[in-house]
Amino acid sequence: MTYAIILFFSLCSGIIGALVGLGGGVILVPALLYFGISQGMIPELTPQKIVGLSVIMMIFIGLSSTLSYIKSGTVDYKSGFILFAGSIPGTFVGAWISKQLDLPSFNLYFGLLLIVLSLILIFKNRFKPIEWFKNHGMQITKTDLDGKSYTYGYPIWFAFVMTFVIGMMSGMFGIGGGSMIVPMLVILFLFPPHIAVATSMFLVFLTSLVNSASHIYFGHVPWHLVLAVIPGAYIGAKVGATWNKRLGSDTVIFILRIMLLILGIRSIVVGLI
């Protein structure tokens, strides 16, 4: 039963994570906090072990979806590696902070983060692109496989600061950070949305490698449960990346932002009781 629960939620996480460029942790972590811990279905779980499972899962979601996006020529490798450099120290700091959190504190802070993420998704279409960052940093021109060229840019120092914070959140709570990375790339750095999603998943893959190493070092990974996470995440990400090319993701994002808001409020209430 334990493996079936984790397999199901990792499959859902892979599909939704790759479809909208999130990474999947925002699905798996609250699901296992509720069903695994609150409902007592997987008594051995702790918040730290859930985070450990999530970061391992995101390696395979990131790898699977990145391989799919590589075929469509939408991954900006240069920006991915630059953003990755900023996130490395953040993931180590976040993993160390996560080790210090008890269950009520984890629920409280994670709930606050979920509400912030839901608000970003709710209002993301109202944000206007900011030209200043594009004109005061490194300029990038990318041509996709359809022959369309796009120009965008960002100050490298600012990208480092933003990805350090996002990496820290990822290390603390086991989320891929895509829900923060994609709006940052589109609104601040003027990335085309399809390049932002693909580059975000590439960054999720790279960051998860470091993130998982941090949580392995702190002993947060329940290896016997990883066997259920890997196939669900990999297959789900393949499906999500395929759907991303065929479907508009507006409906998925609408459902996701409402769900994150509800889960965030519930997590805060549980953390305060």
From TrEMBL:
Its main location: membrane. Keywords: Cell membrane, Membrane, Transmembrane, Transmembrane helix. It is found in: Cell membrane; Membrane. It comes from the Bacteria. It is a multi-pass membrane protein. Pfam families: TauE (PF01925). The chain crosses the membrane at residues 6-37, 49-69, 81-98, 105-123, 154-173, 185-209, 221-240, 252-272. Belongs to the 4-toluene sulfonate uptake permease (TSUP) (TC 2.A.102) family. This is Probable membrane transporter protein. It comes from Kurthia gibsonii. The lineage of its organism: Bacteria, Bacillati, Bacillota, Bacilli, Bacillales.
